[in-house]
Amino acid sequence: MGRGPLETKTYIIDDMIIVRLKGVLTRAEYRLVKSERNAKARELIKQVRIELIENGRPILESLVKGITRRKVKSLHTDISTVTGERLIIFTLDKAPEWE
Question: How far is CA 6 from CA 34, 46, 58, 63, 76, in A?
Fold first, then answer.
């Protein structure tokens, strides 16, 4: 989906997986956000990033299921056009059990 984040951390809390991605915006996206029409630019960047996640959703859910052996119930995401940080939250059908 692009060059990738500068830093990634994952947290597992009960039946949730929280993925925190830092530095996901490109230089061009940062320039757009700082332009005079930044409100429209922010919305466009968020829309494009949502579409990318939605198109890759089956792959992401398959990866999570392969690792946790749990079905993904829902996926939530947002991106900050100020900090370039993105959060992706997966909720699972139940908490993973690690052997």
Answer: 21, 18, 24, 21, 21
Which two three-digit tokens encode residue 8?
């990634």
- Cα–Cα distances (Å) from 82 to 31, 32, 45, 54, 79, in that order, read 11, 11, 11, 22, 9
pTM of the full predicted structure?
Answer: 0.87
According to DSSP, residue 37 is labeled T
13 backbone φψ class: left, alpha, beta (φ>0; ψ -120 to 50): beta
For residue 72, which phi and psi values (nearest 5 degrees)? -80, 120
Is residue 3 a contact partner of residue 26, using CB atoms and an 8 Å limit? yes
What string of pLDDT tens digits covers the 99 residues of the chain?
Answer: 557 899 999 999 999 999 999 999 988 888 888 887 778 888 999 999 999 999 999 999 999 999 999 999 999 999 999 899 999 999 999 999 877
